[in-house]
Amino acid sequence: MAASRRVFVITGPSGAGKGTLIRELVERVPELEVAVSATTRAQRPGEEDGREYWFLTEAEFVERIAAGDFLEHVEYVLGKRYGSLQSELDRIAGHGRVCVLELELEGAERVEREIPGAVTIFIAAEVPELERRLKERATESTGEIGERIQLARRQLEQAHLFRYMVRNDDVRRATEVLVSIVETELEIAATMVDA
Question: Which pLDDT value is given to residue 87?
Answer without folding.
Answer: 95
